[in-house]
Write a structure and sequence with these properties.
145 residues; 4 helices; 83% helix
Length: 145
């Protein structure tokens, strides 16, 4: 993982975990231990799904830049489907409080998206690789025409 990829991931994970801690505290007060467990599960689900998505998208951008936009759309669709499958599997669970889980899932997702957007806006990512232009010039200068 490149340094700016890790930085983008860190800028999204830290605020999401912070809101997760707040959600666990509030859920524990409001709904007890099942609420706290629901908030932990919601936060973990957001960090895992969104973090994996960001890692896959950054890998695609590096390896296949021509597929970046299509992969982004596919990735967000897959993320929504993964969360939907999780919700269907655990819809009648008694392992955790589903309301605390749902509110935490929503809040953590919104915080992740906002933090990721802010991280991308503040990142100094080059649109053109300056090394590739220098290598092209050296290649053309060394060959006889």
């Amino acid at each position: 993982m490149q340094s700016n990829d890790a930085r983008l991931l860190l800028h999204a994970v830290v605020p999401t975990l912070a809101i997760g801690v707040v959600a666990v505290s509030v859920s524990a007060v409001v709904a007890g231990v099942p609420g706290a467990i629901g908030a932990v599960v919601g936060t973990a689900l957001v960090v895992l799904v969104m973090g994996a998505g960001l890692a896959v998208l950054q890998h695609t951008a590096r390896s296949y830049p021509q597929l970046f936009q299509m992969m982004g759309l596919l990735l967000y669709t897959v993320q929504i489907l993964l969360v939907a499958v999780f919700l269907m599997v655990f819809q009648d669970t008694t392992l955790f409080d589903t309301k605390a889980f749902a509110f935490t899932l929503l809040g953590a997702t919104l915080v992740w998206i906002a933090a990721q957007t802010r991280g991308h806006m503040k990142a100094k990512i080059l649109y053109v690789d300056p090394d590739s232009a220098d290598a092209k010039k050296a290649e053309t200068a060394g060959s006889p025409t």
